[in-house]
Amino acid sequence: MAAVASSILTQQQISKFYTDGYLVVPAFLSPDETDALLARSKQLLDEFNLEDHPLTKFTTGDSNHVGDDYFLTSGDKIRYFLEEDAVDKNGKLTREKQKAVNKIGHALHELDPAFRKVTLQNDKLQALVRDLQFHRDPVALQSMVITKQPQIGGEVPEHNDSTFLYTSPPSALGFWLALEKCTPENGALSFLPGSHLTAPITKRFVRLPTGGTGFEQLIAPTDASAPEGEYIMEECQPGDLVIIHGSVLHKSERNLSPKTRFAYTFHMIESPPHAVYDEKNWLQPTPAMPFSRVLDTPNPTTIRIVA
Known about the structure:
By secondary structure, this protein is of the alpha+beta class. The chain is about 20% helix and about 20% strand. Strands 1, 2, 3, 4, 6, 11, 13 and 14 form an eight-stranded antiparallel β-sheet that branches. A four-stranded antiparallel β-sheet has the order 5-12-7-10, with no helix packed on it. Strand 8 and strand 9 form a beta hairpin. Residues about 1-5 and about 300-305 have low confidence and may be disordered.
């Protein structure tokens, strides 16, 4: 890859991202910025109103992934999704509401000033995006606070983000900001380095014609050989950023510790004609809230991030 003039990342960091499919950037947010996002996240949990909530749980398995209307219409709203173990068989919460939420999403980057400032009004982030040569008019399309609640914070199995935010060709890019210390005990992220180069996108997460969501197979699983290598767990300090290639395999374990693991994450994709995002995808823009442009002056002559 040709040398890139970088204002945030070194050439070594850029090369490591393209080699491994992810990159940890220490202390990307200042302590004040991190504390502000964490405080706002907790305030949102306090504001969570259970009275008209459908008790939608967020699940990650292939067979029972969330797909109700509350979820499907959350792209231009701030909504709350519960941990599986926070609701009993009678539909009652097993704990206080602040400790029952799995994540808050999916339009924090547009609707909440604290998160908008970090996502769409951040010169440092724009410079980093340019460093990675992700210049083809990238747009932010979803954002979430993931809380990873104590004792019940659910396991997230091996996956890649382009499965859930599919474009043709794949172009998803994730930004994951630790708001609290992330350890092996409370569900730190693990990655399979280089898997973005060897693991094809085998399926995509779609809206089903009959309602709800499901997976559409792109290639037969038997046609995709299992990527080789060992997962690496990345412990993070508050304020650290993890940049995640849309095709790299990653996961996190269940949180069995007494501590939360708050993180703020958002995703970008390229805009047409460089990548096509179609009506099958579960998340859809609305006339009132199209996907949010990230760069003030896109440069369509540079390369994609697609490996």
